[in-house]
Amino acid sequence: MLKIVSNVVNEPYPKWLNIELWKEYVEHRKEIKSPMSERAERMGINKLGRLIDEGNDQTDLLETAIFNNWKGLWNLKK
Questions:
Q1: What is the DSSP string of 10-42?
Q2: Residues 5, 8, 51, 12: is their CA dihedral positive or negative?
Q3: pLDDT per position as a tens digit, 16-66
Q4: What's the rounded Cα separation, in Å, for the pair 43 and 1?
Q5: How far apart are CA 47 and CA 18, in angstroms?
Q6: Which pLDDT value is given to residue 45?
Q7: Full-prediction pTM beyond 0.70?
Q8: Helix pair angle (38-53, 19-31), 10° resolution
Q9: Which residue, 40, 63, 52, 61, is CA-closest to 15?
Q10: CB within 8 A of 73, min separation 6: which ones?
């Protein structure tokens, strides 16, 4: 069964993805007038995965981006 990422990406979510928090991030992007295209959403999920692999916490990454009104995701482990 396929799940929809924010009604944009018609692909299954990765098993590691916190779907509810990701949806909050996508909604945040809409609120700051910078909605994500289908391609941008796929790229964002991929970048989130790379940042997690580098030792970042998914919740910290997404909540920090929302709190700071960031459009993107940044390495917090520098």
A1: -SPPPTT--HHHHHHHHHHHHHTT-PPPHHHHH
A2: positive
A3: 999 999 999 999 999 999 999 999 999 999 999 999 999 999 999 999 999
A4: 22
A5: 14
A6: 97
A7: yes
A8: 130
A9: 52
A10: 44, 47, 48, 51, 61, 62, 65
